[in-house]
Design a protein that fits this description.
The complex is a heterotrimer of chains A (about 220), B (about 260) and C (about 850).
Chain A (H helix, E strand, L loop, with lengths): L1 E10 L5 E11 L4 E5 L6 H8 L7 E6 L2 E2 L5 H11 E4 L11 H11 L4 H14 L15 H13 L5 E5 L7 H18 L2 E5 L3 H5 L3 E6 L2 E7 L1
Parallel strand pairs in A: 3-8, 3-9, 6-7, 7-8
Antiparallel strand pairs in A: 1-2, 1-4, 4-5, 9-10
Helix pairs in contact in A: 3-4, 3-5, 4-5, 5-6
Chain B lengths: L12 H4 L11 H17 L4 E12 L2 E2 L3 E8 L6 E8 L7 E5 L7 E6 L4 E5 L26 E11 L2 E10 L9 E7 L5 E8 L2 E14 L2 E11 L4 E12 L10 H4 L1
Antiparallel strand pairs in B: 1-2, 1-3, 1-14, 3-4, 4-5, 5-6, 6-7, 8-9, 9-10, 10-11, 11-12, 12-13, 13-14
Chain C lengths: L1 H13 L1 H40 L4 E4 L5 E2 L1 H7 L4 E13 L7 E7 L23 H6 L3 E5 H7 L6 E6 L2 E11 L12 E5 H7 L5 E2 L1 E6 L5 H12 L4 E3 L2 H10 L1 H32 L1 H9 L4 H46 L12 H27 L3 H5 L9 H24 L2 H37 L1 H13 L1 H39 L4 E4 L11 E2 L2 H6 L4 E14 L2 E8 L1 H7 L4 E4 L4 H6 L4 E4 H7 L6 E6 L2 E11 L8 E5 H8 L3 E2 L1 E6 L5 H12 L7 E4 H44 L1 H9 L4 H42 L10 H28 L2 H5 L3
Parallel strand pairs in C: 4-8, 5-7, 15-20, 17-19
Antiparallel strand pairs in C: 1-10, 1-11, 2-9, 3-4, 3-10, 5-8, 6-7, 12-22, 12-23, 13-21, 14-15, 14-22, 16-19, 17-20, 18-19
Helix pairs in contact in C: 1-2, 2-8, 2-9, 2-11, 2-12, 2-24, 9-12, 9-17, 9-24, 11-12, 14-15, 15-16, 15-17, 15-26, 16-26, 17-24, 17-26, 24-25, 24-26, 24-27, 26-27
The chains are: A alpha/beta (about 220), B mainly beta (about 260), C alpha+beta (about 850).
Chain lengths: ~220, ~260, ~850
């Protein structure tokens, strides 16, 4: 469950920029939600706040009953560790690590035993159908394959919440469709809450719920 | 050469000889006159030996330093003499002695003896121009020199302390090493005794020696108070001769380095 | 210029910290250079001024080695027609017994006449320096001190000053105080004047003088005067201008000067690599900017010049700061160098004014700017070759191309081969050329080697920390250019540590070996705690008295003095050859088939130390010219032995020959052997009981005391190594901070991902730390390898040109072992700040694309 109450985000500079203005949002567990809006509307900011990568200027965010405000940096990291998986537009794989190592990265950071990490990572690579590419470096993979690695990495701990920022933004149409299908399949299989930020209406329309943001405000909240 | 005057006094030996000289180029007449005067003065002071007790007082800008006393003994006279000067007071310097062996044709040899170190030191020729232990005399001023060592020229007559004196210029001869370029010597016409000497370096008077308290001692006219004035430092040293005796019996052996000890 | 303001300035501002670090590289190099040379110059200058002041108006000085010469030489000199004034001098250092004042130089002069040559006029002005010159002379305890010394120690006329002399501690009475200026500035005022004849007595000179100072008659050319004097005196006498004493000193300190120069060159080299490092990084980071400039029509040379001008400005700023820092450092170093002088002159030079020579500073500025520009040359060139299209593509960073790497390796191999050829030719200049070629080749190999080592390190780091370790190693592997500058700098400085440390250690060991075999007497009777202090001497006959003491088995007298051979002041050691043969235990290198001891004993030859033979480039059978007061003594070398008595070499001469030529029957040291089974301590006490009433100055040292003293002296060698370790640590910190600062910028995104997927701050820090440790390790590995070779070169230099000691090659493993924790600690220390900055970056920013 994700709960946002009166969340605002301002950027202080020479001019005060309001990225989000008094957002109230409730996303129940297991929902697949898309967030759409033109660029600069604040949708990525919203995702960053929910993911604990950034802090709101005002309001509270609660993930699974855990309030994020008041947490120190390592507290936020702990929340990310246990509850969140990230999928980025530019994949953000570590170029020097193999496919398997990239997937295993969060598990290593959690200090899991080697054997358990290996088993889980292989399982996930299988899940995203990349077993054949286990030892390849990111540079040796296609865009879609890289995004699948990234998805596998985001799922490595089977997080209750999965956040995807333009997951298809850097992929061609067909691959984008494939990735999206993978995400909805995983939603069905794992029952995670999934938030997808996109400006692609076809992607958005494939989700159960579509939230539209414009100028830092929720202007539409559609459920199918 | 003959002297033209009668025997008069003689100046005390240690300082006397600087003055003994006269005459140079300007006229053979003046030259021979001047030389004769000096020769006569030297002749009149010829003695076998001399002994006195000296009192040395240095008067610089701040007044008197310390009185020193010495006993002076000389065997022979002028260019053929030897002298020993031994300090007796103050206690710090008692026993320090100076041996001077004069030569008629060249500068003297000088040695100093310091009892605390039990050794002698030679006073090198190059050092004769330095001051004699803080007095206004230089080591060179202690030499007994001979008439032969200078060229003379009579400059005229002038009264010194009201007594008419010959004014004679004396220039060191070629083989004589001296710090002075020339000296002007005043010799009293009445007694052939030296009354005053002015020593020059280039054109400046650097030291002036005045003789006073002149009296006849054993037939020799002797100035018993010598005042040396260092004009560069404007400081004066007065030497007073006490218990002066001539022709006292002295032994040759007492005038050696060995005897100094 | 406008480009500079528009493009460079914002970059510099943005990367202020790193720009500062870059500048620090040059600052360090220039500072070391300036500090060493300024300190050197300051001391030399002070010493030369001292020599000058002591010499006064003297045009020439006459000496005859350390032994001095008989008094009557003075008269002979005064009678030389060309000479106007000649005065005798005795120079003797004496311990002041005043805390913190050390030694004072006593100048014994002839108070009746010396004034004409020196400017310590005793009576100029209105106040006489000495109240009563006659009292001064009549009292042998009279001394004149300088106003400076009097002021420091609150001494006034009439006060007593106790000095340690030949006849024991002796109280002197201050009878005059020299006004400031002139002579009083010699040795910073630690100088006193006394009557030369009194000095003869208290300093055991007998009827000898140490020196004659003289002035020639007006119009006599110095060379003419010198020739006339030399002709009168003969070869045993040295007639020279006072300034040549300074030169002699310089040659004595050559060892020190050479190591100084090597160190400052290394420092600049290291600075160069730090600059190279920074500029390579800057070029990489600013590729897109360069691409835009190129796309907007900037020609290549403009781009190159932009970077060169930037480097020149960096160099200029760094040099100015370096000069300032160097002058400060020089003040600190002056003390050390002064101490070295004390060993030679007996009195520490007080170089209080450390003023730098403008030419040196100009040179340092030039060197700083030039080094900086040279270092930036390659990066600037590569910047000018940036392809605008490629540069504008995002996310691609330039890596070292395979071709570039191959070219480097090829060049390195070629240089290495030439280095070997040079070494095989072996002659001096070729040898040094070989050294330089080797260093350049090693530097060229650094990127490839660093890569190789980093790859080897990866599994280890990965095993330690699967994510943090692997990523740290990958960071090195992927940006060899970023790392190699720091690694090269570290390699150079560690190589220097190993080289100098190895030489120091081996010299130390050799000397210990020598001490073990040669230093076998149970007791040493000497006039000074310092056995090389030859100021105090005893009559040689004292040896017989010592021999008659119960429990004494054997006594050997030793008279040692410095004498000039081939322009070098070597140590002449006078011994009884028979005793030397029996007790000396020198390891023989080679000898005349007729037996070296027999020949030397018969006065038919000398025995020399092997370092003498090497430094003088002489062999068995060659003749050695020894100048003595009795004339030139030419003897063949009949034997060569291992002996480290002196760094400049030692010549052993039989006493009978020495006495004949030097007319000297004194000894500085008696080597005393106790009867077997007798406690040396007991014998020591007996000697003291018997001898001190007559010889209050006499000291009896045990074997152990002497040994400790020698080892302590030798230990100073090792000190140089430790200062190098310090430099290495600074370099390590500087290089690693610089590299890591860039690394965390390069890895901003990677670190952001780590944090996003659940990495704690601790874990981010760890990866930065591990990268630092990895750089340190690679630097260590290369440094130790380089050091192994450097040690070889330094040992060769030592043997060839410095001390003539050919030392065995032994790698200083313990030193290397010590470097591990030191450098790793330095690495961790350097990582602290970058690691903190890494965990503080905004995550959102890190994950965004630029």
């Amino acid at each position: 469950m994700i709960l946002l109450e009166h969340v605002s985000k301002h950027f202080e500079g020479r001019r005060r920029v309001t990225a989000l203005n008094d957002i109230n949002l409730h996303i129940p567990r297991g929902e697949l939600v898309s967030i759409v809006g033109p660029s600069g509307s604040g949708k990525s900011t919203l995702l960053n706040l929910i993911g604990g990568l950034d802090r709101p200027t005002g309001g509270t965010i609660t993930l699974d009953g855990q309030r994020l405000d008041g947490l120190a940096d390592d507290g936020l990291t702990a929340v990310r560790r246990d509850k969140l998986g990230f999928i980025f537009q530019f994949f953000n794989l570590l170029p020097s690590l193999s496919c398997l190592e990239n997937v295993a990265l969060p598990l290593h950071l959690r200090g899991w035993p080697k054997k358990k990490i290996d088993d889980r990572a292989r399982e996930l690579v299988g899940l995203v159908k990349l077993t054949a590419r286990l030892d390849h470096l990111p540079d040796e993979l296609s865009g879609g394959e890289r995004q699948r690695v990234a998805i596998a990495r985001a799922l490595s701990i089977y997080p209750p919440i999965l956040l995807a920022d333009e997951p298809t933004g850097n992929l061609d149409t067909q691959t984008g469709i494939d990735i999206l299908r993978l995400i909805s399949d995983l939603h069905v299989t794992l029952g995670s809450t999934i938030l997808v930020v996109t400006h692609d209406m076809s992607v958005a329309s494939s989700c159960q719920r579509m939230i539209t943001i414009r100028d830092g405000k929720i202007v539409d909240d559609l459920r199918r | 050469m003959n002297s033209r005057s009668s025997i008069v006094g003689r100046p005390p030996s240690i300082v006397r000889l600087i003055a003994l000289g006269l005459l140079l180029s300007s006229g053979v007449h003046a030259q021979s006159d001047a030389r004769q005067i000096v020769e006569e003065a030297q002749r009149r002071t010829n003695t076998k030996s001399q002994r006195y007790e000296g009192l040395l007082q240095v008067l610089d800008g701040k007044g008197k330093v310390a009185d020193k006393r010495w006993i002076f003994m000389r065997l022979g006279s002028h260019g053929n003499s030897k002298a020993v000067l031994r300090f007796v007071a103050p206690p710090e310097v008692k026993g320090v002695a100076l041996l001077i062996v004069n030569h008629p044709d060249r500068a003297s040899d000088q040695w100093m003896w310091t009892p605390a170190l039990q050794r002698e030191r030679r006073i090198a020729l190059q050092d004769r121009s330095t001051r004699f232990f803080g007095t206004d005399f230089s080591f060179e001023d202690l030499e007994e020199r001979d008439v032969e060592q200078y060229h003379y020229r009579l400059l005229g007559e002038e009264p010194i302390d009201g007594i008419v004196s010959w004014k004679i210029e004396s220039v060191p001869s070629e083989k004589k090493t001296s710090q002075y370029t020339q000296s002007i010597v005043w010799i009293r016409k009445d007694i052939y005794a030296i009354a005053q000497i002015e020593n020059y370096i280039k054109n400046d008077v650097v030291r002036r020696l005045k003789y006073s308290d002149v009296a006849q001692v054993q037939g020799i006219w002797t100035g018993r108070r010598l005042e040396m004035h260092d004009l560069r430092k404007n400081s004066r040293t007065i030497l007073t001769l006490d218990k002066l005796q001539y022709n006292v019996p002295l032994k040759e052996e007492d005038f050696t380095l060995q005897a100094l000890k | 210029m406008r480009l500079l303001r528009l493009i460079s300035w914002p970059y510099l501002k943005k990367h202020a910290v790193r720009s500062l670090l870059t500048v620090v590289g040059i600052v360090l190099g220039v500072a070391v250079f300036v500090a060493m040379h300024t300190a050197n110059q300051a001391v030399f200058f002070a010493f030369e001024r001292t020599v000058d002041k002591i010499a006064g108006a003297a045009q020439l000085q006459i000496t005859a080695g350390e032994g001095g010469f008989p008094e009557d030489v003075l008269e002979a000199v005064q009678n030389v027609p060309e000479v106007a004034v000649a005065v005798p001098v005795i120079e003797a250092p004496a311990a002041t017994r005043v805390a913190g004042q050390g030694n004072i130089l006593i100048l014994g002069v002839d108070m009746t006449g010396d004034r004409s040559l020196r400017d310590y006029d005793l009576e100029s002005g209105d106040a006489a320096v000495v109240d009563d010159p006659l009292v001064f002379l009549a009292q042998p305890d009279s001394i004149i001190i300088t106003k400076e010394f009097a002021g420091r120690n609150r001494l006034g006329v009439g006060d007593t000053l106790t000095l340690s002399t030949m006849v024991g501690d002796k109280a002197f009475t201050v009878r005059g105080i020299m006004r400031s200026g002139g002579l009083t500035s010699a040795f910073g005022g630690n100088l006193a004047v006394m009557d030369i004849y009194a000095a003869q007595q208290v300093f055991g000179r007998g009827r000898h003088f140490d020196r004659i100072d003289l002035k020639l008659k007006d119009g006599v050319p110095i060379d003419t005067g010198r020739a006339a004097l030399q002709k009168t005196l003969g070869v045993g006498y040295d007639v020279a201008q006072p300034s040549s004493r300074g030169q002699q000193l310089e040659s004595t300190l050559a060892v020190y000067a050479i190591s100084m120069n090597v160190s400052s060159v290394f420092a600049l080299f290291i600075g160069m690599f730090i600059i190279y490092n920074s500029f390579s990084i800057a070029v990489t980071q600013r590729r897109s900017e360069i691409g835009i400039l190129r796309a907007l029509g900037a020609p290549r040379h403009q781009i190159r010049n932009l970077f060169l001008i930037e480097s020149a400005v960096t160099g200029l700023i760094g040099s100015i700061a370096g000069i300032a820092l160097g002058i400060v450092g020089a003040r600190a170093m002056v003390g050390t160098i002064s101490g070295m002088l004390e060993g030679i002159y007996g009195v520490a030079e007080r170089a209080e004014e450390v003023s730098a020579d403008p030419r040196l500073l100009g040179g340092a500025l030039g060197i700083g700017v030039l080094t900086s520009m040279m270092a930036a040359w390659l990066p600037a060139r590569s910047a000018s070759r940036v392809d605008p299209v490629q540069a504008l593509q995002k996310g691609k960073s330039q890596v070292l191309t395979a071709g570039e790497n191959r070219a480097r390796r090829f060049t390195a191999a070629a240089l290495m081969a030439s280095a070997v050829v040079c070494l095989l030719i072996g002659r001096s200049i070729w040898f040094y050329a070989g050294y330089v070629l080797f260093v350049v080749a090693a530097l060229l190999l650094v990127p490839a080697m660093a890569l190789w080592f980093a790859r080897g390190l990866r599994p280890v780091l990965k095993w330690l920390r699967p994510v943090e370790g692997a990523l740290a190693a990958d960071s090195l592997i992927q940006s060899p250019r970023r790392t190699s500058g720091a690694v090269a700098a570290l390699m150079l400085s560690l190589g220097q540590v190993i080289g100098l440390g190895g030489v120091g250690r081996e010299s130390y060991n050799s000397i210990v070996d020598w001490l073990d075999t040669a230093l076998n007497p149970d007791l040493f009777v000497s006039g000074s705690q310092n056995l090389s202090d030859r100021t105090f001497r005893f009559p040689e006959s004292l040896g017989k008295d010592i021999l008659s003491i119960d429990g004494v088995d054997d006594v050997q007298s030793v008279r040692s003095l410095r004498t000039n051979v081939g322009g070098t002041p070597v140590l002449l050691i006078v011994i009884n050859m028979a005793g030397f043969e029996q007790r000396g235990h020198r390891t023989m290198v080679s000898q005349d088939p007729r037996g070296m001891y027999a020949l030397a004993k018969a006065g038919q030859g000398v025995i020399v130390s092997d370092n003498f033979a090497r430094l003088q480039r002489v062999a068995l059978g060659n003749r050695v010219d020894l100048a003595s007061p009795g004339g030139l003594l030419t003897l063949p070398i009949v034997g060569i032995v291992a002996d480290w008595s002196d760094q400049q070499g030692a010549v052993f001469l039989d006493r009978s020959v020495y006495e004949q030529y030097w007319n000297d029957q004194t000894a500085n040291v008696f080597r005393v052997y106790a009867k077997p089974g007798t406690d040396p301590q007991v014998v020591r006490q007996r000697i003291l009981d018997r001898m001190t009433p007559a010889q209050p100055r006499l000291l009896v040292l045990t074997n152990k005391e002497v040994r400790d003293w020698v080892l302590q002296l030798t230990g100073q060698w090792l000190q140089l190594t430790y200062s190098q370790v310090f430099i290495a640590v600074i370099v390590a910190i500087l290089g690693i901070v610089n590299t890591l600062t860039v690394s965390i910028i390069d890895r901003k995104r990677e670190l952001g991902v780590l944090r996003a997927v659940g990495g704690f701050r601790r874990q981010i820090r760890q990866t930065v730390w591990m990268e630092a440790v990895a750089i340190g390790m690679v630097g260590l590995a290369l440094g130790l390898l380089f050091g192994a070779a450097n040690l070889y070169f330094l040992l060769q230099i030592t043997g060839r040109d410095l001390s003539g000691m050919y030392l065995p090659y032994r790698f200083p493993f313990d030193l290397a072992l010590m470097l591990f924790p030191t450098i790793l600690a330095a690495a961790l220390f350097s990582a602290f700040w970058p690691a903190e900055s890494a965990v503080r970056t905004s995550l959102v920013e890190a994950l965004e694309y630029e």
